Amino acid sequence: MGLIVDVFPARSDNFGYLVHDEATGRTAAIDAPEAGPIRNALLHRGWTLSDIFITHHHIDHVEAIGELKAVFGARVVGPRDEADKIEGLDELVGDGDVIELGDSRFAVIATPGHTLGHVVFYNQDGGHLFSADALFSLGVGRMFEGTPGPMWEGVKRLRDLPDATLVYCGHEYTQSNAKFALSIDPDNAALKARAAEVDRLRLAGRPTIPFNLGEDKKANPFLRADAPELARHYGLEGADPTEVFAAIRKGKDNF
Q1: 233 annotated ligand binder
Q2: pTM exceeding 0.90
């Protein structure tokens, strides 16, 4: 018995996720981007929604909470630090907490930056990380609310997770992330291989997630802000990695 993850598209470029605990039948949606695709995925699988786990307050991650809660009576769990921005939360969690879904457990990790209270959910037993907009394949989310220091610290905590971890992020941005990454790290063999794989997947109409965290550690410039070659690219040799991270983020914003 373990955890089954169902992946499906939602909105224009969001991913929807259902996680199903085989032992008990409990099923959670990771974020609530759009009710229709979530309900269709439940119907296709023959599952009943029992829980909703929310990562942050942006509308494309919370819009369907009300409808899903009304239909299924689901328990809604979300970040304590954004409780004033998210309607319908039943249980508030923060860094270091553990959420139970039947026999499955998810560690809550704070990842401020994209939003100040952003959290991610890590299922250690299955090796699943639901990173929403804190960590993308070959990228990270825009720094809408936070500052580079805390965001870099949060990213490093995700980088410290095992290489075998499968990462399920919030959006299909990998191809554009790859183009930017190659512009600042053109000699990275792992990045070039990943970019070619991404092009093949997208040409075939396939998603680029879940992605392997170990591979991303070698190719994602935001996970490599302490790499000398990236510091050199920005003329920041000897600078604190936080400064390099900020430069990479600004570069992507303007790319």
Answers
A1: no
A2: yes
